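User: Teach me something about this protein's shape.
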Amino acid sequence: MFGAAESGNDKVSFKFKVPAKLIRTQRSIYTPPFATTQNMFWQLKFHPESKDHREFCALWLIALPNPLEKYSSENWSDRSEYSVTYFMKNPNEKLNFGKLENYNARSPVWGFTKFCKKERLPREGEITIGVRFNKVKYEIEKIATPLPSQPLPQDLLKAWKSELDQPEISDVQFNFKEGTLYARSTILIERSEYFRCMFQQDKWSESKFTTKSLISSSMQITQAKSCNSTKRSWNLLDVSFGRMKKVEDLFSIYRKMKPQPMTTITSSSGTTCTIVYESENSNSINVPKKYLVNVIDFHLDTFKSMLKFLYTNQIEFYSNSLHRRPIDVFVMADKYLITELRDRAKSKILKDLKPDSAAELLFSTEWLWSDVKDMIMSYVVRKWEVVRETDKFREILEKPQSYPNSKELVEEILEKVRKNDEEKKKLLDVVAVE
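Assistant: First, the predicted structure itself:
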């Protein structure tokens, strides 16, 4: 299969030559991936015989998610700015698809099931299939975002997973109502700004960054009489997501500091950490410091899912579980400032959306996060005729006091539905005139 790209006048075409003999023997034919921008990838899929209409052939344009699109639904909006035309040569055929506004993580493939009569396909020679992107500027620069790479070896993932919850090699103990978990601070510090701030709290006094760059409230320091401890309190719940400053590595500074015997850190957002250092007069100079963290706002199972991600970069969601649903992981990742995990959970929330669950999520919790609210709001507006008939939505209308902000949300939904209906009506009027 031979491919080529042609650009000009804010248009770019990708075309691929396919041997006629291959068409007669293959059920599906995929072109090599191609890109319209540095991080936007595509692929054509050709069916010599359409599954839905056997007398026709089908042509599809597949969106290949880049790493950001794979875990976050917001980035798909960039594709909606393009409009495309599908074409074929020998036989000649051209169909205008229009704007790519329906592409998303749940529906990455769109095209025509009745593109061309199958009987028109040649038995010899070759045909050309292609797609033209309209009103786009083709970038010939080096692609910055690579196509998805090979997954990590399973034996490596297994090895890292086995390191978690091992008391003998861990210096962090997490205490829950349900039990205890163990982890290594070196891993948590590198993977989470929250834990970096918690476990390296003394380093912040030596950092060129002020505590305000990460912590919304000022640090309060008091001296405890009983154990010569220092108590520092902060609230990380109000930190705006995505506005974190990168913290420089301060290990060298910290090694020069003389630690206190014990430090207790209390967060008003539900986490308390007690740092126990080696005694200055202790003979066991190789004993590492221990972090005792009391977690009262998350279940052990939810927290363990997060720790597994920090260790392996892998996450498994269980939509029917009590504590490992995508929303559970999302809330936790949002608090602990783990961006990638937050995006993965948000993407999973979108993929699992159904009319009944969308109403419940939107009115129960999701309105607290604007990005997730907008995502679910779009779904509810799009599926409004179905959502409004669900038992959950009726319950919301009957018991608005049980759902904070329900009145404002309903008004916002109705306004968006009204605007959506007006746009559809205008489009129908234009088609009727033509």
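Now, about its shape. Residues 307-433 form one domain. Residues 406-433 form the longest helix (28 residues). If you'd like, I can walk through any region in more detail.
User: That's plenty for now, thanks!
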